[in-house]
Amino acid sequence: VVVDSRSHRFRCAVLAVVGGLVISVQFVLPAHAAHLLPSGVDSVHGGEIHYQEATDYDAALTYARDAWNPVGSVDFKPDTASTVNDLQYDDYFEVTSTVGYWTESAGEDNIWFNDYWFAGGSVTNRRAWATHEDGHALGLDDHYSDTWNNTIMDSCPACDSSVPTSPTAHDRADYHDRWG
Amino acid sequence: MHVARRVTVRAFVVAATLAAGALVYAVWPPDVDYVESSYGFDVGDQAKVAGFSDHVVVASVVSVGESVDPKTAPPFTTYTIQIETVLKGSLKSGSTLPVTQTGVDLSGKQITQLADITPVREGSRYVLALKTQRDQSLRIDSVPVFSPQFVSDGSDRSSLDIKVITDWKDAIAHQVVPSNLPR
Asked: Do the Cβ atoms of A92 and B42 come within 8 Å?
């Protein structure tokens, strides 16, 4: 009886220590290291992004919108007379390595598509680039490490052999870290 | 007399309020808006950045010129640079010329800055990868780490970062033109 009792106490102690370690690790190590823009900036207001556009790449814009909207609670919606515009899409031209910009500002934010790349870009690449810029509007940051190749938020979203055109599991995890 | 004193007090209050407002404005930190970029090729590969550029130079920033928000394109600033060493291209050492870069700094109070890009400061020296635009002007090809890449404070030329320049020479010697450039 004495041996059983000691054995029981030992098992309980081991279980308590292991349980405590598991709980501690849960608090110390986040399950997913999110890549979010600093200071929590984004183009979202009231859970939505109302946008206007004057881009020649409507198809890419529409594709990107439809790629992100099902992911979670935030919706891209065209601006109306009764809403305040949050985001303006435009095209510009510069001969640089930059495909597009998302610019934060006190009023409406901007997404700029660089004609230099977009005009001759394939449908797949345009979709990847537009979906990437929309990711910034949702508060997601660029990924520079090769670990994140083939994600939409890779700083070069159309560089890899397999070009993603919709949010990958990692992009979705970042999204859910930001928006639940 | 009583009225005159009241007017004097009011004037003092107004002046003190304005002075306090000016002081708060002077010490208030600038509002920084960030610009996030995406790229058409792997800009983490220095050989590709070298292959894409028309010119690569070591240059000092002589002055920061006009900040422009054209509304039809992202805001940009014009800088005057003096070229000290030509690593690639046909520009002349010693020449002074204007270059532009996306981003603006309006009187230190409203800054639009490219995220992940080294800001250019007057008086410092950098390696700059430059691209010729349609109007033949030169634009800094802003990419993380490599352009602009700081090499020394202008006031301390002995601190020139030789390794940065050596790495650039090596990248240019082994440059790769990205395969997916627009035609």
From this structure: no
**Are the Cβ atoms of A99 and B38 closer than 8 angstroms?**
yes
A179 touches chain B (CB under 8 A): no
Give B137's Cβ-side CA count (13 Å radius).
13
More confident residue, B7 or A135: A135
Residue B95 CA from chain centroid, whole number? 19
- Read off the pLDDT band of A25 (50, 70, 90): very low
Report the C-alpha gap between A170 and A128 in whole angstroms.
Answer: 15
Residues in chain A within 8 Å Cβ distance of B133: 94-95
What pLDDT digit, counting tens, does each position of A64-92 carry? Answer: 999 999 999 999 999 999 999 999 999 99
**A178 touches B: beta carbon within 8 Å:** no
Q: What are A26's two structure tokens?
A: 């849960």
Q: Are residues B51 and B177 in contact, defined by beta-carbon separation less than 8 angstroms?
A: yes
Q: Are B34 and A63 in contact (CB under 8 A)?
A: no
Q: How far is it, in rounded angstroms, from Cα B55 to Cα B89? A: 4
Which pTM does this prediction carry? 0.83
CB contact under 8 A, B40 and A110: no
Q: What is the ipTM of this complex?
A: 0.84
Report the half-sphere exposure of A141 (CA within 13 A, side-chain side). Answer: 18
Determine the distance in angstroms separating the CA of A117 from the nearest CA of chain B, rounded to an integer.
Answer: 6
Indicate the range of B19-28, B78-87, B101-110, B167-176 predicted with least confidence: B19-28
Q: Measure CA A119 to chain center.
A: 25
Q: Could you write out the DSSP letters of every residue in chain A?
A: -HHHHHHHHHHHHHHHHHHHHHHHHHHHS-SS---B-GGG--S-BTTEEEEEE--S-HHHHHHHHHHHGGGSS-EEEE--TTS---EEEEEE---SSEEEEEE--SSSEEEEEEHHHHTT--HHHHHHHHHHHHHHHTTBPPB-SGGGTTSTTBSSTT-SSS---S--HHHHHHHHHHH-
pLDDT, one tens digit per residue, over A88-147 is 999 999 999 999 999 998 889 999 999 999 999 999 999 999 999 999 999 999 988 888
